[in-house]
Each structure stands twice: as structure tokens, then as C-alpha cells.
Amino acid sequence: MNLSRFLILLLVFASKAALALNSGECTFTNQKLTYSGVNLPSSNEVYKDGEVLGQLILSTNYSCKTQSFTNNGVVLQVGTRGAAGSYIGEKKFRSNVEGIVLEGTFMVGGVAGVNNEIIFNQFKKPTYGNNQNISGTFNQPMFNVIKSGEIQNASSVTLNLATQYNLASFIYNTGGSAYVSPSSVPNSQQIPVYNASCNVTHPTNVEVPALVKGVRDEVSSYFNIALNCADKSVMQNNVQLTVTPVNMTNVSLSLDKSSLLYNGNGQIVLMNIFNNLGSESQMLFSTMYEFSNDAQGSSFTIPMRAKFQLGSSSGYGNFSFQTQITVRYN
């Protein structure tokens, strides 16, 4: 019976000893790095170098004991150990994916004598005292994810710094040892990488039915302008279309941009254009029109109509109009 009591007391004592923290020490559990943002484009066709695509959010549970002394009102702070190996400058770090740079959202400075580390939390007086046990959860954006080039030969990636790093606790602006977590911060979840290439298809020549004075003074030609992309992520919002007249020989644009007038070779012909998305609507030349990609698909088709009308004093002959079609998407 006495032996049983001794064993129970010994086990309880060992359990308490395992949970005890030294002053200035933190333990971290459930470390996780989560990406929040758009899928990553493989090329520069949608997002340009330098644009922010999203953020990496660090979450971890922590249990700490603040230091026995105070420095500038700080009793403990938490940062990284190892991130300096990826540091570029101006709070930017190399990532583990070519074509992506990570920008720190927190202060970059010294962590227990090592420069260019990330300091992401400070415990200060009077909120916290010396030798105080504290616990909680960090869940904050740690990096902005910035496009810096093309992502080659990947359908998905996991993101992190280029070098392995751990979380560490230390006291403000001092050298000496830091308490470093034995486990490194893991990579993010799998993030899709999409091919941002798109192509526009439309007829290079639109045949116009014959106009016959007094018999068929008005005719129409129908055609489609189609945008086809390798991935539906490219056209997440809108498609923009502009039809601009070019090669204006014998052609003039009306002041309100609604019509092109051909006047040459004895011919007088008026041209108007329309789109037929939902209901038909006349378009002005040299004017951008925006269409919502509600279906969120990888292709988008704009049905078009060009209307031609003979002038009152027109004779017989050939005529032509030339336009340039510009399609943008975002």
C-alpha cells in the first residue's frame, strides 16, 4: 500500500516539473502558416511584379513566463530564429518558391543578438508583470505575398521562407540566449498555381452582304469576339472591350463616336456596331465597355453585330472599314 502511494506521488511531481517554465521561456504548439489570397499566377499577364497577391497568416498557441527583469517597459517578446537567412532588405525575404517574395508585416530587428529576424509580439508593462505565466493564441498576418517573377512548372505550391526558422522568446534589446522552439514553422497549405495565358478569337475579315440601292439599303453582319483562358481564375471579375477604327482612308468618325462613314469611289456607307449580351446595345467606337463575368468561367463570348446602311446618294462599288479590337480582363 505504501509503495502504491509513493508511485502516485512521484508521477504527480514529474508531471508538474514538465510544465514548469523558466523566466523568459515560451512553448509553442499547433504552429500553422495559412495562405489567404488569390491563386498564384504563373506569368505576368494578370498580376505584375511587385503586386501583392495575398498574405501568410501565422497561428500558434503559446505558453510563456515573462522575464524577471524589465527593459524599456518590455518583460518578454516573441520572434523568429532563422528567418535572417532569407532576408533581402527593406522587410523583404526570399521565399521557397521562385517568383514569390515575402514582405514582413511586423518589425524586423535583433532577436537575442541575431539581426534581421522578425519580432511579432511584445509583452509590456503595465499589462504584464515580471515572472508572470501567460498563455494564448497568435493569429495574425506575418507576410505579404508579392509577385516577383514567373512560377515555373508547378500546378500548386506550399509557401514559406526560403530557409527554415523557428519561433523564439527573448527579452527586449539584449543579446544572450533565446528560448527557441524545437519545431520549425511549417509550410502553408497547397496553393493552386494557374496558367494566366489567354487568347482572343474573332474573324479577321467580316463579309458584308451586298447592298442594293432601293432594294436592300441596310444589311447586317454577325460575328463573335471570344476570350479563352487557360484557367478560370484569370477572369475573376470583368472583361473589357474597345473597338477602335484604324486606317481612316475615305472614312470619318462621327462626333458622338456612334458611326463610321465611308465616302469614296462613289459609295457612301454608314456603319454602326452593337453587342448582344443579354439584349442588344449599340456601342460607341473608341470607347471601353465592361462586361461582368458572372459565370466565372474560363471563356467569355461577346456576340456582335455590324450594321451597314447606304447613303441617299450612294452609287455602286466597293467599300471597307478597318477596326482594332482590344480586350482586357481582370
Quickly describe the structure.
With 330 residues, the protein is mainly β.
CATH topology of the largest domain: Immunoglobulin-like
Broad CATH class of the largest domain? Mainly Beta
Helical content class:
under 10%
**Rough outline:** rod-shaped
How many β-strand runs? 24
Strand composition percent: over 45%
Write the H/E string, N to C.
HEEEEEEEEEEEEEEEEEEEEEEEE
Residue-averaged pLDDT: 87
Largest sheet: 7 strands, antiparallel
Radius of gyration using CA atoms only: 33 Å
Number of separate domains: 2
Protein name: Fimbrial protein
Keywords: Signal
Q: In words, what does this structure look like?
A:
The chain is mainly β and 330 residues long. It folds into two domains: 175 residues, Immunoglobulin-like (Sandwich); 132 residues, Fimbrial-type adhesion domain (Immunoglobulin-like). Helices cover 5% and strands 50% of the residues. The protein contains one helix and 24 strands. Strands 15, 16, 18, 19, 20, 21 and 23 form a seven-stranded antiparallel sheet that branches. It has a six-stranded antiparallel sheet with strand order 1-3-10-7-6-5, with no helix packed on it. The longest helix is centred in the N-terminal third of the chain and has 18 residues. The N and C termini lie far apart (77 Å). 26% of the residues are buried. The N terminus is likely disordered. Keywords: Signal. This is Fimbrial protein. It comes from Vibrio mediterranei.
